[in-house]
C-alpha cells in the first residue's frame, strides 16, 4: 500500500487545491490589477496533465479536491476535467470534488457539475449592491452572479457564499448579507483580506476589517454559539441561535489555524505551493513532463511535502505590511 503524505509537523495532507487557470472574467481590486498579463497557453498544464497530476495526489491519499483559479469556469474544456475526476468519486478514492467560483458562469455549468458528482460550491460575493459590485470586481455584473447562484441551487448544489470583509466597503451590509443568505439557506463565510500581490492601487491595511470586530457586531444582534465542526477548510463556525444559520470566519491573520493545516496548492503551471502564505514551491511540471512513469512525480511530491512550513508569514501587526506576498491570489487560487 502507498504511504500517505505526512508533512514534517505530522499533519496528513488530504486536501489539494488546484488552480486550473490564472485568467478571470473579473478584476477584483484585492486580487488582480486591471491590466493583468496572463501566462501563455504553453505554460499551462494541459487538461490531461492536470488529470495525471491530480490522480497521483489521490493515489497518495488526497481525498478532497477543490478546483479554483483565476476563475475555474473560464478554462476551456474544464467540464472534461471535472468529468475525468468524477471517476475517482465513483471509485471511492476521492471523497469530495468541489470548486470555488465567482459564479458568473454557473448558469451555463451548474447542471454539468452536478452530473460530475459536485455536491457543493463556494461562491465569492462581497456585496449585494450593483454599483459596489461593479466597483469591487471592476468587470463583473451582479445580476449575472445572482442568476448563477439561482442556477446552482436549482441544480441541487449546496451553496456557500464567501465574502471578503472590507472596511468601509461592506461593513454596512453585514446584516443584509446575513439575512439574504438565511432566506436562501446558504452558509456565509467571511474572509479577512490578505496582503497578496503588488496591486499598486489600494493600501491593504486601510481595507483590513478584523473579523473579531465583525463578530462583535453580529453579537449585538444575535446570540452566537461556537460550533466545533470543520469542513476540512480553515473556517471556524458559529450558529446564530435566533435563526439557526451558520456563519464562518476565515481569519488567517488574527487566529492561526495552521496547526491543523491539511492542504497544499497546485498552480496551473504545475507549481506546488506548500503554504498560501509562503513563497516556497516545488516545480512538479518538470518531473511530470520528463517521464510517462509516475514514480518520479510521486517522489517530487513527497520531497516537496517534506518541506512544508509550519505556518504563514503574514503580519499586519507592524507599521507596514511585512511579509507581503508578491504573488497574486489568482496564481495560487486563494
Ligand atoms: N491563510 C489561509 N487561508 C486560506 C486557506 N485556505 C483557504 N483560505 C482562505 O479562505 C478562502 C476561502 O476558501 P475556499 O476556497 O472557500 O475554501 P475553504 O474555505 O477551504 O473550503 P471549505 O471549508 O471546504 O468550504 C480562500 O480564498 C483563502 O482566502 C489556508 O490554508 N490558509
Ligand atoms: C482567488 S479566487 C479564485 C476563485 C474564483 N475566481 C472566486 O473568486 O471565487 C478565491 C478566493 O480568494 C479570495 N481572495 C482573493 N484575493 C484575496 C485577498 N487579497 N485576501 C483575501 N481573499 C482573497 C476571493 O475573494 C475568493 O473568495
Ligand atoms: S477573486 Fe476570483 S473573481 Fe475576483 S479577480 Fe480574483 S480570481 Fe477573479
Ligand atoms: S497559512 Fe499555510 S500552513 Fe497555515 S493553514 Fe494556510 S496553507 Fe496551511
UniProtKB/TrEMBL annotation:
Binding-site residues, GTP: 17, 66, 100, 160, 263-265
Molecular function via GO: GTP 3',8'-cyclase activity
Cofactor note: Binds 2 [4Fe-4S] clusters. Binds 1 [4Fe-4S] cluster coordinated with 3 cysteines and an exchangeable S-adenosyl-L-methionine and 1 [4Fe-4S] cluster coordinated with 3 cysteines and the GTP-derived substrate.
Region Disordered, annotated ranges: 308-334
Residues annotated to bind [4Fe-4S] cluster 2: 258, 261, 275
Domain of life: Bacteria
Listed Pfam families: Mob_synth_C, Radical_SAM
Compositionally skewed regions (Basic and acidic residues) per UniProt: 311-321
Reactions performed catalytically: GTP + AH2 + S-adenosyl-L-methionine = (8S)-3',8-cyclo-7,8-dihydroguanosine 5'-triphosphate + 5'-deoxyadenosine + L-methionine + A + H(+)
Gene3D superfamilies xref list: Aldolase class I
Keyword match GTP-binding: yes
Residue sites binding S-adenosyl-L-methionine per the record: 30, 70, 124, 194
InterPro entries attached to this UniProt entry: Aldolase_TIM, Elp3/MiaA/NifB-like_rSAM, MoaA, MoaA-like, MoaA_NifB_PqqE_Fe-S-bd_CS, MoaA_twitch, MoCo_biosynth_MoaA/MoaC, rSAM
Cofactor: [4Fe-4S] cluster
Residue stretches in coiled coil: none
Family annotation (CDD domains): Radical_SAM, Twitch_MoaA
Pathway: Cofactor biosynthesis; molybdopterin biosynthesis
E.C. numbers: 4.1.99.22
Keywords: 4Fe-4S, GTP-binding, Iron, Iron-sulfur, Lyase, Metal-binding, Molybdenum cofactor biosynthesis, Nucleotide-binding, S-adenosyl-L-methionine
Domain Radical SAM core, chain residue ranges per copy: 8-234
Binding site for [4Fe-4S] cluster 1: 24, 28, 31
PANTHER family: MOLYBDENUM COFACTOR BIOSYNTHESIS PROTEIN 1 (PTHR22960:SF0), MOLYBDOPTERIN COFACTOR SYNTHESIS PROTEIN A (PTHR22960)
Family named by the database record: Belongs to the radical SAM superfamily. MoaA family.
Subunit structure: Monomer and homodimer.
Annotated function: Catalyzes the cyclization of GTP to (8S)-3',8-cyclo-7,8-dihydroguanosine 5'-triphosphate.
Protein name per UniProt: GTP 3',8-cyclase
Species: Roseinatronobacter alkalisoli
Amino acid at each position: 500500500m502507498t504511504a500517505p503524505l505526512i508533512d514534517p509537523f505530522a499533519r496528513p495532507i488530504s486536501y489539494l487545491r488546484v488552480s486550473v487557470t490564472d485568467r478571470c472574467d473579473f478584476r477584483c481590486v484585492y486580487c488582480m490589477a486591471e491590466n493583468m498579463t496572463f501566462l501563455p497557453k504553453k505554460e499551462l498544464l494541459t487538461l490531461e496533465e492536470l488529470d495525471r497530476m491530480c490522480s497521483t495526489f489521490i493515489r497518495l491519499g488526497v481525498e478532497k479536491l477543490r478546483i479554483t483559479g483565476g476563475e475555474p469556469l473560464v478554462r476551456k474544456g474544464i467540464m472534461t476535467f471535472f468529468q475525468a475526476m468524477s471517476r475517482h468519486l465513483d471509485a471511492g478514492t476521492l471523497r469530495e470534488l468541489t470548486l470555488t467560483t465567482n459564479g458568473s458562469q454557473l448558469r451555463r455549468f451548474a447542471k454539468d457539475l452536478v452530473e460530475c458528482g459536485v455536491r457543493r460550491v463556494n461562491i465569492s460575493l462581497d456585496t449585494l449592491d450593483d454599483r459596489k459590485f461593479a466597483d469591487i470586481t471592476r468587470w463583473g455584473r451582479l445580476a449575472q452572479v445572482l442568476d448563477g447562484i439561482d442556477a446552482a441551487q436549482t441544480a441541487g448544489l449546496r451553496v456557500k457564499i464567501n465574502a471578503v470583509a472590507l472596511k468601509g466597503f461592506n461593513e454596512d451590509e453585514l446584516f443584509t448579507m446575513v439575512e439574504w443568505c438565511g432566506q436562501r439557506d446558504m452558509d456565509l463565510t467571511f474572509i479577512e483580506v490578505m496582503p497578496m500581490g503588488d496591486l499598486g492601487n489600494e493600501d491593504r491595511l486601510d481595507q483590513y476589517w478584523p473579523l473579531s470586530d465583525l463578530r462583535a457586531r453580529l453579537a449585538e444582534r444575535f446570540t452566537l454559539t461556537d460550533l466545533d465542526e470543520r469542513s476540512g477548510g480553515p473556517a471556524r463556525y458559529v450558529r446564530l441561535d435566533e435563526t439557526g444559520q451558520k456563519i464562518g470566519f476565515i481569519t488567517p491573520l488574527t487566529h492561526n489555524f495552521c496547526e491543523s493545516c491539511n492542504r497544499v496548492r497546485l498552480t496551473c503551471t504545475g507549481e506546488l505551493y506548500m503554504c498560501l502564505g509562503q513563497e516556497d514551491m516545488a516545480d512538479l511540471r518538470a518531473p511530470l513532463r520528463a517521464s510517462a512513469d509516475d514514480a518520479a512525480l510521486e517522489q517530487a511530491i513527497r520531497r516537496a511535502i517534506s518541506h512544508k512550513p509550519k505556518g504563514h508569514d503574514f503580519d499586519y501587526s507592524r507599521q507596514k505590511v511585512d511579509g507581503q506576498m508578491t504573488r497574486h491570489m489568482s496564481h495560487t487560487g486563494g
